[in-house]
Amino acid sequence: GGPRPRPGQEVSVKVLGALEDGGLVERDPRLTFVPGHGDVVQALELGVPTMQPGEVSFFLAAFPYGYGRPGSRRCARREPDVPPEAPLLFEVTLLEVRDGPDPQPLPPAARLRLGSQRRERGNFHFARGDFAAALHSYRLALRALDGPAAAPPGPQEEEELREQRVKCLNNCAAAELKLERAGEALAACEAVLRISPDNGRALLRRGQLLAQQGRDAEAELDLRRALELDPASKVIHAELSRLVKHRSPPACA
Fold it and tell me: What keywords are annotated for this sequence in UniProt (predicted)?
């Protein structure tokens, strides 16, 4: 009984997940998450908001709504691996629904941990080809990294936060490109370079995007700087060579 979870509310569920042969691969007596934040598999993201508190539901999930085409390896957990393209049966008990927590000031270590967790979730979505979900997770990771701080970070923590932001923004650019949104990808690259002007990945990607827009002189500057940072990169050599040929006037017959 009771109302179903509304957007933005936090839920706690008891979860059991099994393979077709009955092998148990998920067991959590109290899993807490906010649907829509991308922290759990799609079967739970989509299924739990249809439930009422106290309800027990079974969700038979095709592999895109579970662990995707690659499955999942459990290096440090008791449960067995999830094989590639494995459908899963989830037994879910909705224990509690409550208003989502207001953003609380977190110590730097907690911000780093939450940001890393959400970025890894984005990588999971990216690997299975769900680029919109990956982008959403990367943005949530950035929100955690940039959230209110309970205490000013020390020099090492500040550097770790900066590195995490750079990784998330580069991943945002990659996801935007997969979604064919060149303008947003370029903005993400520029955000990286404001934090880390010599980030080779962002320089290469921005150079490629500028070249696509016909801004050849700007693109060449980025690609040449990227080449200085990584002289052995065949990709940068090829991009720069292509750009130089494009800018060169045709030879007279």
Answer: Isomerase, Repeat, Rotamase, TPR repeat
